[in-house]
UniProtKB/TrEMBL annotation, chains A, B:
Signal peptide: none annotated. Residues 80-332 form the Fumarylacetoacetase-like C-terminal domain. It comes from the Bacteria. InterPro entries: FAA_hydro_N (IPR041072), Fumarylacetoacetase-like_C (IPR011234), Fumarylacetoacetase_C_sf (IPR036663). Residues 1-76 form the Fumarylacetoacetase N-terminal domain. This is 2-keto-4-pentenoate hydratase. The lineage of its organism: Bacteria, Pseudomonadati, Pseudomonadota, Alphaproteobacteria, Hyphomicrobiales. It holds the Pfam family FAA_hydro_N_2. GO terms for molecular function: catalytic activity.
Amino acid sequence: MKLSSLKQGRDGRLVIVSRDLTRATDAFFIVPTLQQALDDWEKVEPRLRDLAEQLEHGSVPSFRFHEHDCASPLPRSYQWADGSAYVNHVELVRKARGAEMPQSFWTDPLMYQGGSDSFLGPRDPIIAVSEAQGIDFEAEIAVITDDVPMGATREEAANAIRLVVLVNDVSLRNLIPAELAKGFGFFQSKPSSAFSPVAVTPDELNDAWDGGKVHLPLLSTLNDKPFGRPNAGVDMTFDFPTLIAHAAKTRPLGAGTIIGSGTVSNKDEGGGPGKPIDDGGLGYSCLAEQRTVETILHGEARTPFMRFGDTVRIEMKDKEGHSIFGAIEQEVVAYRKET
Amino acid sequence: MKLSSLKQGRDGRLVIVSRDLTRATDAFFIVPTLQQALDDWEKVEPRLRDLAEQLEHGSVPSFRFHEHDCASPLPRSYQWADGSAYVNHVELVRKARGAEMPQSFWTDPLMYQGGSDSFLGPRDPIIAVSEAQGIDFEAEIAVITDDVPMGATREEAANAIRLVVLVNDVSLRNLIPAELAKGFGFFQSKPSSAFSPVAVTPDELNDAWDGGKVHLPLLSTLNDKPFGRPNAGVDMTFDFPTLIAHAAKTRPLGAGTIIGSGTVSNKDEGGGPGKPIDDGGLGYSCLAEQRTVETILHGEARTPFMRFGDTVRIEMKDKEGHSIFGAIEQEVVAYRKET
């Protein structure tokens, strides 16, 4: 089943989307918003699935689905917690600044609490005050959970996964060092994130979903040029059930909690840092990683961060080449004070 | 106007509470939940105020108000961001572990993103796995805002303050060092927070509210013994408009955003660290600060963290001694796996 929230009010209008992303039908008469569906999933899911089947059969009224009409599936949520499951990425970033990564990072997940009150739509611009802030994208996978009790086991966590989405975890790189040095984590350096037009139930991923990871390449394109295609199922040190259980260690998680994978990153075949796509590699899911590899290889970063007018596109395709979630596609635009 | 959310469903049932906290009347027919009221404040506020006036006059049906029936005013919210506005507190904690505090901490607010999907009610137990986690309370003030545009000025931020509440920002002190060392801020070390039974519009504070701070003592009691009474209007380096503008620097804030002050803390009259109430001082708003002062004075902390069965009470009274927000009162209880 594929679900989307068309832009309307603060929480969007829930629609069911056809598997091929061409058509949609209103789910309003079942439940008006995705958050409300998640609040009462056990009761609502069978009815939404019935409707999805009718949509596939063409037996309900439907309309043309346009990705640019979408808000994020949850236009705002009660929790957005982002892991760093691709530890390879973390190790690289540290290496570039000459810092050892503690051994515990391979066993104890890194996770930060993100802002969840003002997500961007998948085609909304990334608005930034200055290019000097080091504007970057981060292509990630995330899952949306049901209620998770405090102290949940890995298995309980796995059973609470309801939906899968893509994320652009926008980052302002040049604000990060000073902010992290203060010791309280990210805040201004992580502006609003954007999510894919469509959220899908795990069964839509077929055998690309093993209950914990998504085994497909995550495609990032910068200004229409392929930038990354690492496989999200490879080098993911902590799978989603592990990340969820980590988040629920000392408190319960509310329905609609979004847990992110962190930037998807694959090592090179030889075990070293990944190569750019132009050099025959799988590329990267953020500019910072490419810059890090450049720093390690050449002593300095050569790729600039995003500039006003740059566009990033993030997408995932099934084995037949069909888009699963629709595409996040965002242009960086200069902030102008509302008057 | 005083507002409360009685326990019901995920978001509570909005009621108006009388100024003296003895009676309440349903606001359901105007708007069912506080979040929905905040989503449409301009339209809803005048109608809620009319109802509050009728309640004071006894001209609407009302019922006895019991604080133990309350959820937190927002039982879950889209954002909970907590500042550390009482820099005195931060400096002390650093001093105890022999670390200098950077000068910039006096001009650049510390703030962390907290979990907001599963707040505790004001009389709910604090459930913890082990006393060894170092269970502590933190008595704070917080404001709840309307929408705040990205890049808001201090004045715009001030105008977006809708409600004031008290908070118990529960902390697991012994998990903090390892978690902060990972660099991504608090996560497991900050379990669910609890808020006062009642949220009030700033005008309810009369001249104790100057538009940015609350000039009244914040009363903390541990096992029925007075523990702290620092004045929340004193030594608050960053007032609420400054904290809100900080949070809104790189992204907008959604209606219902909760911004906390951090642990309220006053210096001693002589400018040194505060003294315990037993020694004629104003005491503290968390155990960690008392332990910090003990460490500075005696070389070691003497006061233990909270144990199972301990109860903390947090309250604020007006100049006539009447409770403004009702009381947070929470017992620490051992976690037991749900079966």
